[in-house]
Amino acid sequence: MRIVFTAGKRRLNLVLPPVVFTKTEVLASFFLCWSAEAEVTNTLNKACIDGGSFLLRIGAYRDSCPEAETIIFSWVERAVTEDPRMPASLLRLHFHDCFVNASHSLYIYYVGCDASVLLDDTPNFVGEKTAAPNLNSLRGFEMIDAIKSDLESVCPETVSCADILAIVARDSVVLSGGPVWEVQMGRRDSLTASKAAANNNIPGPNSDVATLVAKFQNVGLTLSDMVTLSGAHTMGKARCSTFSSRLNGNSNSNSPDINVDFLQSLQQLCAEPNSNTTLAHLDLVTPSTFDNQYYVNLISGEGLLVSDQALVTGDDQTRGIVQSYADDPTTFFEEFTKSMLKMGSLGPLTGENGQIRKNCRIINQF
């Protein structure tokens, strides 16, 4: 449930999971979030104002597992050295996790960032790994396994898989040159997963702006959040099969949506044998750096995916945001951290809901 309090020019968004709260609990959360002055310095209050959840908190493992974030960071740091693609892969895992099982109707928000994406299939459900947006696409599962195993040896059944995903996403951005932010923690892990939900909820690479906006609004994110979070495509790669419609191009039209030289380079790359498995950089200029180059590329007609370039050609409002980020990397970094915080707090499982999995691939046996 999202509760919005407004007083004068100040507005607070409180995100609650789909469980029953007493009137006293809701009012207590309101006063916790409202207690800061206009110049907010308290991290809890700032999180509430920026769209985070009061049920999550910074430093949640400070006492129960003080080494948790250090252990996770060291694993991600090693991965960046060994596999330049890993930062983008870990960031994408968090995104795909948060969009599944997350939906809302009026004021009710359902669970999103719950590590359901990590679950293997069982006799009771088909998981999300084989869904169309994930099959032969998502990677980094072994890295999460290694991190979880390490954490379990230090502080058993303490750090959730959902929190691991949120932390590795942040660390991947930081280690790639992007902004730093404090991750809210306290999520618990789901007891199920849904291939159907993954197929329905995750935006596809050929989506137009209207579809993208609808998918994001379905989980409580705005058009601006959509353009901002798309900036994660400043890292990573995509198969030729995911942007095949871009290869036809319309560079000969009066209003081309693809740069001619860029088109020719893609056509050459994807003309190779077994091109369906050939990979292209989402950002050809600075492929391993988290920066605003993605937006600069879009302005130049060098968006790899249809859904990327549509942000410039498909809507004046999204084009304006793209232009502002292309012009000012600082603004992009600031807004990206806010949108990541907001996405990461989509109806988290907390309290006694869900569980802390011992193995991120399977639910604990009761």
From TrEMBL:
Residues binding substrate: 203
Catalytic activity: 2 a phenolic donor + H2O2 = 2 a phenolic radical donor + 2 H2O
Residues under site feature: Transition state stabilizer: 92
InterPro entries named in the record: Haem_peroxidase, Haem_peroxidase_sf, Peroxidase_pln, Peroxidases_heam-ligand_BS, Secretory_peroxidase
Subcellular location: Secreted
GO annotation (BP), single: hydrogen peroxide catabolic process
Keyword tags: Calcium, Disulfide bond, Glycoprotein, Heme, Hydrogen peroxide, Iron, Metal-binding, Oxidoreductase, Peroxidase, Secreted
Cofactor binding summary note: Binds 1 heme b (iron(II)-protoporphyrin IX) group per subunit.
Residues of the active site: 96
Tree of life domain: Eukaryota
Ligand binding (Ca(2+) 1): 97, 100, 112, 114, 116, 128
Residues that, per the record, bind Ca(2+) 2: 234, 283, 286, 291
Binding positions for heme b per the UniProt entry: 233
Keyword Transmembrane: no
Domain Plant heme peroxidase family profile residue range list: 55-364
Disulfide bonds: 65-155, 98-113, 161-360, 240-270
GO cellular component: a single term: extracellular region
Co-factor(s): heme b; Ca(2+)
Single GO molecular function: metal ion binding
EC number: 1.11.1.7
Predominant location: secreted
Family named by the database record: Belongs to the peroxidase family. Classical plant (class III) peroxidase subfamily.
Function summary: Removal of H(2)O(2), oxidation of toxic reductants, biosynthesis and degradation of lignin, suberization, auxin catabolism, response to environmental stresses such as wounding, pathogen attack and oxidative stress.
Protein name: Peroxidase
Native organism: Camellia sinensis var. sinensis (China tea)
